[in-house]
UniProtKB/TrEMBL annotation:
Residues 35-148 form the Phospholipid/glycerol acyltransferase domain. This is 1-acyl-sn-glycerol-3-phosphate acyltransferase. Its EC number is 2.3.1.51. One of its GO terms (cellular component) is membrane. The HXXXXD motif is essential for acyltransferase activity and may constitute the binding site for the phosphate moiety of the glycerol-3-phosphate. GO terms for molecular function: 1-acylglycerol-3-phosphate O-acyltransferase activity. It is an enzyme of class 2 (transferase). It catalyses: a 1-acyl-sn-glycero-3-phosphate + an acyl-CoA = a 1,2-diacyl-sn-glycero-3-phosphate + CoA. Keywords: Acyltransferase, Lipid biosynthesis, Lipid metabolism, Phospholipid biosynthesis, Phospholipid metabolism, Transferase. The gene is plsC. Pfam families: Acyltransferase. GO terms for biological process: phosphatidic acid biosynthetic process. Belongs to the 1-acyl-sn-glycerol-3-phosphate acyltransferase family.
């Protein structure tokens, strides 16, 4: 039995007290079927921010260090998160789990930058998001979180229209192709942030 419904109630209450949250484009997240939610990363709150306002719980890729704590690790697994070794060139176990999530018709949540990026900073996004979407035959939903997580501050989360990648399917998945897709997706995320 998942603790998600209980956690969601308390997290929503916490957000209502702490922040002024605005949600845009929630209808762009499919009500069923798979999809990759690709989001910018400004805070440890981001996974909660992305998930708490959705009707479906995304499966998150989280750094393996978070699972070292038995209580936190158990909670994360109950919330459908799974670990990835960020030091590895390719964590095959995490890769196979991500593809399995998408093949099973679920949502995969990923922060392509791999770590938190402060406002004004730049960090190259990792191309894994493109590989997951292509191998998992899933659309990518760009997600932009804007604002600061200070008491009573305004936070806006926008879910963009799904990007299907149809023009890339059936072809070779080269490094250049993955970088092109990743640049396209993160460009859209940045565009949504600027617009807000």
């Amino acid at each position: 039995m998942t603790v998600y419904p209980v956690v969601k109630v308390f997290v929503k209450l916490f957000y209502k007290i702490m922040f002024k949250a605005t949600i845009v484009g929630k209808e762009n997240v499919p009500k069923d079927g798979n999809g990759v939610l690709c989001c910018n990363h400004i805070s440890n709150y981001d996974p909660l921010t992305m998930a708490v306002f959705l009707d479906r719980l995304p499966c998150y890729i989280a750094k393996k260090e978070l699972f070292d704590n038995k209580f936190l690790g158990a909670l994360l697994r109950n919330l459908k998160a799974f670990p990835v070794d960020r030091e590895a060139v390719m964590d095959m176990k995490a890769f196979k789990t991500a593809i399995s999530v998408l093949k099973g018709g679920d949502l995969l949540g990923i922060f392509a930058e791999g770590t938190r990026v402060k406002e004004g900073e730049e960090k190259a996004a990792k191309a894994g998001v493109a590989m997951f979407a292509l191998k998992g035959d899933a659309p990518i939903i760009p997600v932009a979180i804007s604002g600061t997580y200070k008491f009573r501050s305004e936070i806006t989360i926008e879910f963009g229209q799904p990007i299907t990648l149809e023009e890339y399917r059936g072809g070779r998945i080269t490094t250049a192709v993955m970088e092109e897709i990743t640049e396209k997706i993160m460009g859209k995320v940045q565009e949504m942030k600027v617009k807000l």
